[in-house]
Amino acid sequence: MIKINLLPVKEDKLIAEAKGFLAICVISIVIVVALVVSNSSLLSAREQESRDRIAEADAEIAKLKSIMGEIKNLKDKKAKLQEKMDMIIKLQEQNIGPVRVLDELSLKIPSNKIWADKLTIKGNKLELDGKTLENQEVANFMKQLENSLFFSNINLKKVTKDKAVQGVTVLSYGLNTTVHFAGRQQEQPQQPAKPAEQQQAAEPAAQTGANQ
């Protein structure tokens, strides 16, 4: 059977071009859809990755907060323990310190030619007044106190002539010092007696020699 194409040649060409264009459109649409789906999957993956990282960061923050809380508790416990230790040390100093200081003071008296009449402790300051038969005994006493771990900053206040006892000349002296009830942990250089104080201490001795 013979077919006869009654359509003009131009119409056949237009139909062919339309079919080609339609095919291109379909292919383009498929490509676009594929790209959209692929991009959506990629964005979803990145979003999930970001959520996972945020979750890890939140977990790390929670862990750090827990550690910081433990550190704070340890610091509070340390502060309370230190406070208790300071209180115990203070009580020990109040109960034992003065006894040790008095015992140390008696041991540092160089001879039976010097003795203490009055002793006053206020805080960590000690005031001492006494009598001596010789001016040099006061200087020796001060040196002994300087070598002790319980005393520092020894200052001579006075050395004056007192009343004679059975014809023997007696000198009155006074000094003050800083007291360390628990003892000094490290040796500290002691300041020597001031020249004015040494001169003041020497004057009564000279007066005693002149009187004799």
List descriptors:
4 strands; 212 residues; Gyrase A, domain 2; alpha+beta; rod-shaped
Explain this structure:
With 212 residues, this protein is α+β, with helices and mostly antiparallel strands. It folds into 2 domains: 48 residues; 115 residues, 2-Layer Sandwich (Gyrase A, domain 2), CATH 3.30.1360.100. The C terminus is likely disordered. 60% of the residues lie in helices and 17% in strands.
CATH topology of the largest domain: Gyrase A, domain 2
Task: Report the CATH architecture of the largest domain.
Answer: 2-Layer Sandwich
Under CATH, the homologous superfamily of the largest domain reads General secretion pathway protein M, EpsM
Tally of DSSP β-strands? 4
User: What order do the helices and strands follow?
Assistant: HHEEHEEH
Mean pLDDT: 78
Q: Overall 3D geometry?
A: rod-shaped
Helix content: 55-70%
The total number of structural domains is 2
Distance between the termini: 174 Å
| Unreliably modeled segments | 186-190, 208-212
Major beta sheet, strand line-up: 1-2-4-3
Structural class label: alpha+beta
Largest sheet, described in full? 4 strands, antiparallel
Q: Report the sheet-strand fraction.
A: 15-25%
Q: Count the helices. How many?
A: 4
